[in-house]
Design a protein that fits this description.
Layout: E1 2-4, H1 15-26, H2 34-45, H3 51-64, H4 72-83, H5 89-94, E2 100-106, H6 107-117, E3 121-127, E4 134-136, H7 142-151, E5 156-161, H8 167-171, E6 173-180, E7 183-186
Parallel strand pairs: 1-2, 1-5, 2-3, 5-6
Antiparallel strand pairs: 3-4, 6-7
Helix pairs in contact: 2-3, 4-6
């Protein structure tokens, strides 16, 4: 089976960054979190986080802002109406019904686009809407743990990613393909 990372692999960009940008344009309350979010983005981009550090870094934003958004489901639909076109064309050419997406993106954002794309097998990070606390963070070595919890001993023939953050997933895959833009290079 084929397993894919989502951000910068299938989706042309970082979903969370784009989603926050959506709110920057529509909700002034988010502005006080922008400096911290830029710091988080920098650390993530340069792979300077452990799972625990990522959990702590996002906590203030999630607990202070995310839980106060009343119409999140509507906003997610509007977000994907605008950003669905950022799904990379190469993926639609190779997509199979048994594909699995394993992403650090939160499930409340993934649910809508996976439904639109007809993808049934996926897992992402999960946040408690009432508290803003992570129930699971699908990031770094946690991706393998969560993949195995959800999909058991499913064998990964091909894994597609854009980042060495996914080294743990690479290690359990027969073949690995590195995606840069629309260029795909086999690295294992």
């Amino acid at each position: 089976m084929n397993v894919y990372d989502f951000d910068n692999t299938i989706y042309d960009g970082e979903t969370l960054v784009d989603f926050i940008s959506y709110y920057i344009k529509t909700d002034r309350r988010i502005w006080k979190y922008v400096p911290k979010l830029l710091y988080i983005y920098f650390k993530d981009t340069f792979h300077l986080f452990t799972v625990e550090q990522a959990l702590n870094a996002y906590a203030g934003f999630l607990e202070g802002y995310y839980v106060k958004v009343d119409i999140i489901e509507e906003d997610v639909k509007k977000f994907w109406d605008k950003n669905e076109s950022k799904i990379k064309p190469w993926y639609n050419k190779v997509r199979r019904d048994d594909d699995i997406i394993v992403s650090g993106t939160t499930d409340f954002i993934l649910d809508e686009i996976m439904k639109r794309m007809g993808i049934k097998n996926y897992v992402g990070s999960s946040i408690d809407k009432k508290t803003g606390k992570f129930e699971r963070l699908c990031f770094l070595e946690n991706k393998v743990k969560i993949f195995k919890e959800v999909f058991g001993d499913a064998h990964i023939d091909n894994f597609y990613t854009d980042s060495m953050n996914d080294k743990a997933m690479m290690d359990i895959s027969d073949h690995v393909f590195f995606v840069t833009g629309d260029r795909i290079e086999q690295i294992k």
